[in-house]
Amino acid sequence: MAERPRTKTAPKPKRKKRISGRKWFYGLFFTAVIAIVCGVIGYLLIILNGERVLTENANKLVFGEASIIYDANDKEIARLSDPNENREIAEFSEIPKQLLNAIVATEDQRFYEHSGIDLFAIGRAVVKDVIARSAVEGASTITQQLAKNVFLTADKTFFRKATEASIAVALEQQYSKDEILTMYLNRIFFGKRVHGVKEAAKFYFDTDLDKLELWQIATIAAMPKAPNRYNPIAHPEDSMNRRAVVLKLMFDQGFITAAEMEKAKAVVYEIPENHNESNSDKYPAFVDYVVEEATEVMNLSEEELRIGGFKIYTTLNTQAQDAMDAQFNDDDNFEKSKDEQQVEGAMIIIDHRDGTIQAISGGRDYVKKGLNRAEVKRQPGSAFKPIIAYGPALESGKFYPWTTLANDKKCYGDYCPTDRWGATPVSMTQAIKDSRNLAAVWMLNQVGLKKGFAFSSKLGIELDDRDRNLSAALGGLTNGATPIQMATAFSVFANAGKSVDTHSIRKIDGKSNNSYTYKAPAAKQLMSAETAYYLTEMMQTVVQRGGTGTKAAIGRQLAGKTGTTQHGIKGFTGDGVKDAWFVGYTPEWTASVWMGYDRTDLDHYLKTGSSQAAAMFAKVMKPAMKNVPESSFNKPQGIKEDKPPAAITNFNAVFIPEEMRVQLSWDPFQDGEVTYQVYRKEASESEYIRFVDSLTSTGVNDMSAFPGMTYEYYVVAYDAENDQESAPSAKIKVTIPETEIIPEVPMEPDPVDPDGGEITPPLEGDGESPSPSPSEDTEPEATVDPGSGNGTGEPVPTPTPTPTPVPDDGLGANNSTNALGNSETGGNSQETGG
């Protein structure tokens, strides 16, 4: 019998060894023991290290190494840490309870619960940082901040942070909470070289600690986070906003009531009358600006920057700064005030070729005030017209410097702009030269607010939604723009439409590779080179004869724009100026000047406009640019120059009393084929009418002028082939004297002109116009509307030829180009406005 095959049996699975509960217990136990031992050892090491630092630095305050600032030639101009810093020690008993509460509520809410290191705060900060994927929240306790300020430099390394923590723990071991808080409040930096709450109370409020009000306490408590940004003198608005945050924290933690919070939030800070800032730096405004920029690019607090031993190399041009300081220290450059509140000013100079700031003035007696007015927003007035209206118009490609703009006195909804000019159409160039309001508003209306706002935004000036109306064309803005912003915007015009990155720091050398070197961002073409050139071409006329900024001329190529804003004082209807500007640029440098009062009221407003700002520009820029080689504005290739006919010259309007007609004449146009258009309006009328059209001769008679009426005339040349119209000629006003009614007598037939026309017959009667009685009321006059000029902005001389009868061609055209003049009963006088 065959043997049956054996069946293979599957191997039995191995049993997993179970870890007994005892082994689990011992494993966890020893792990915990090791962790505890490591923790204890680590804690002891932290304590020992902190104790060592405290022992080695007993009774010693270490600020660290002073940072040094250098000018453009690497010469030292300032040291940020000064052994004579303002400090006055306060005892714990002197510090108001609410000030202690405000500091704890703002800087370290768990101060009385932790032992130097707040692990809960660290965990919360880590979670927020992970969620935000960046460092958004710090976790340093008040004790850690004290350790950093007293014993450490500003070097940001892991070991420094570890040492800071160890010192904080050691401080908690050796000192009480009240002692730590007192040392902290005596050490903390409050900007402007002020350390400690006692000195801060005197410096910012001119009062003692025990007399501080709640809003003042909150203002002081708001500053340690960023002493420069939340400084009530340098940045009052930011300070007020941060104060509100402090008050809300105090309310949330039960230190104050809601009513107390709201009352303290509403107070507006004012610099004390006896305020006097101690500052030995030669260029304080520039230094303050550099510190502000350095803290931003280095991501450091101002205190860390000051004690970090940094070498800060700036763009300061001492020749320019000295020239600026000399003029701002000269009281004769400013209007006189009736009291101690003086007219203020600010100025900045930028080399727009590389964006380097050459000089800054924050105001007169800056060391006493500390408010950098170059960074304060003001209403720019007409200096804003190239930014909001003319710039975007040129950029659209539909308008050119020679385009004729409407200049009518009309309303746009509820907005009815006015100016001192008549309703004569005007070229864009003439409008900007004269700073005409009506033309600028009309231009912005044509361009559209959306494009105007977008153009302003590209130039770095963001407008408020409340500014979305046509008054923005005149610079009447809600928030306005700073002198630095205006200079930067005009720098783009000077830089062929390319962006300019304004900066004051070239490089910063620090320890432990904590350094910075300026690298210019890629330039952006913010507008076409053609637009920038056209704006430059037009604004050169502003500083030429007849322009509004002639006092800014410095003997080299210059373009610029003046600006003034009305006083805006409620209930006051008189004339007065709140802000006066001149912003201008050569091919090399751009500068802006602002003048006005810090606070405008019935006793404090400017009596003159932008002329003093323009004069200040010239007085500073001429010596400042003494060693800067001259260059010229670059003209883009292919620039369109299809200009309109030149304005008519030698326009005359004379009343001929013997023939009761107004005789008009002008010089013929010399370049190309044109016809002439004559405009007229009666004095009581608001708009001109086209009196004569398509005229080929250079004269015309107005036979429809009525006695006792006053008329205004002007003439333009029209190029039909290119559909272009010249700028208006001078405007002349003629008053027709009253006349008596003479009995009618027979008249001879009208003589016949040899050329087929008719000679204008005399008036019915005896052929003579009766002479008016010698009275001032009947004396005729003819005047040019102020500022009209001859189309070029230059004054037109008063003609004084002898009147001569001129034959008429039947159409009212005067074929004679002889000069016409005054009779005993008629005449004209002319004047032009700047």
Q: Can you walk through the features of this model?
A:
- The chain is an alpha+beta fold and 834 residues long.
- The protein has 21 helices and 22 strands.
- The protein is elongated, with a radius of gyration of 39 Å.
- The chain starts with 20 loop residues before the first helix and ends in a 99-residue tail after the last strand.
Q: Helix/strand-derived class?
A: alpha+beta
Number of DSSP helices?
21
Main-sheet strand order equals 2-1-5-10-11
How far the N terminus sits from the C terminus, by CA atoms, comes to 139 Å
Write down the CATH topology of the largest domain. Penicillin binding protein transpeptidase fold
Radius of gyration: 39 Å
Q: Indicate the CATH class of the largest domain.
A: Mainly Alpha
Going by CATH, the architecture of the largest domain would be: Orthogonal Bundle
Average pLDDT for all residues: 81
> How large is the share of residues in beta strands?
5-15%
Low-confidence stretches: 59-63, 125-130, 132-138, 747-834
> How many DSSP E strands?
22
Helical coverage, percent range: 25-40%
Query: Biggest sheet, open or closed, and with what strands and sense?
Result: 5 strands, mixed
Short key terms for the protein model shown above:
Beta-lactamase, 13% strand, 22 strands, disordered C terminus, five-stranded antiparallel sheet, Penicillin binding protein transpeptidase fold, 834 residues, alpha+beta, 4 domains, five-stranded mixed sheet
